[in-house]
Amino acid sequence: MPLNKLTLMPDRVEILLPDGSCLTDIEYERPEQLIPFGCRSGACGACVIEVLDGSAALGEADPDETDFLEDLGRADGNHRLACQCRLLGAATVRVAQQ
């Protein structure tokens, strides 16, 4: 299975994940929690990330995710819920400031 690179800013932490992995799967690769998460179902908003590069590699946001991001005031198109993203190529993200 091919591996894709996820880069987490600002520390430039690079993690390789299998194609199609959820971004919150990085918890299995690193001992520290690099992306906070709570529910894994797109309902809590703990895992909001800002996509800096490679948005197409994260798949399309479904309408529920888009609506929830709008409720959170993050409807600018640069934010996603990490638990709803599937890594399909290289991407660079950072955890959104609360």
How does this structure look, described?
It contains 1 helix and 7 strands, in the order ββββαβββ. With 98 residues, it is mainly beta. It has a single domain, classed as Roll (Ubiquitin-like (UB roll)), CATH 3.10.20. The strands form 2 sheets. It has a 5-stranded mixed sheet with strand order 2-1-7-4-5. It has a two-stranded antiparallel ribbon with strand order 3-6. The chain starts with a strand and ends with a strand.
Which features characterize this protein?
single chain, 98 residues, mainly beta, Ubiquitin-like (UB roll), two-stranded antiparallel sheet, 1 helix, 7 strands, 9% helix, Beta-grasp_dom_sf, 2Fe-2S_ferredoxin-like_sf, 2Fe-2S_ferredoxin-type, (2Fe-2S)-binding protein, 2 iron, 2 sulfur cluster binding
Describe this structure in a few short sentences.
By secondary structure, the protein is mainly β.
DSSP summary, beta strand count = 7
Q: Tell me the name of the CATH class.
A: Alpha Beta
> Structurally, how many domains make up the residues?
1
Strand residue percentage? 25-35%
Topology record:
Blueprint: E1 3-9, E2 13-18, E3 21-22, E4 48-53, H1 63-71, E5 79-81, E6 86-87, E7 91-95
Parallel strand pairs: 1-7
Antiparallel strand pairs: 1-2, 3-6, 4-5, 4-7
Pfam families: Fer2 (PF00111)
GO molecular function: 2 iron, 2 sulfur cluster binding
Organism: Streptomyces nodosus
